[in-house]
Design brief:
It is built from no helices and 10 strands. It is mostly beta strands and 112 residues long. Strand 2 and strand 3 form a beta hairpin.
């Protein structure tokens, strides 16, 4: 069975996000994602997230629930509209300047 996760920011600290396991209702981990966030996207399987930043202009691919950064994509413009393909083999981002970024991801994460 695939775990279902919920990602929520902490009220007093907009840089810290909590990952909740919806099956158990427990907070599994806290992620320090920093400032200047421009967007978040949860993968369809709930095992990875994309995090976009305005400064520096990057997108981070992060493993859940461990919080390990799997890859960092450098961009020429600020990322907007982050998304995964349904099979999680691609990640995409738009930008406020009309650019589209598309990345082939190394491999689909293992099922728990």
């Amino acid at each position: 069975m695939t775990a279902c996760w919920r990602l929520a920011h902490r009220e007093r600290d907009r840089k810290t996000f909590s990952i909740w396991n919806l099956a158990t209702g427990n907070e599994e981990r806290r992620l320090e994602l920093g400032e200047n966030l421009s967007g978040l996207a949860l993968s369809p399987g709930g095992r990875r997230i994309l995090v976009g930043y305005d400064a520096p202009q990057i997108v981070r691919l992060i493993d859940l629930p461990g919080g390990e950064e799997l890859h960092r994509f450098d961009l020429a413009t600020s990322p907007r509209g982050l998304s995964f393909s349904p099979d999680e083999s691609y990640a995409a981002s738009g930008s406020h300047r009309g650019m589209i970024y598309l990345w082939k991801l190394e491999s689909k994460p293992d099922s728990p």
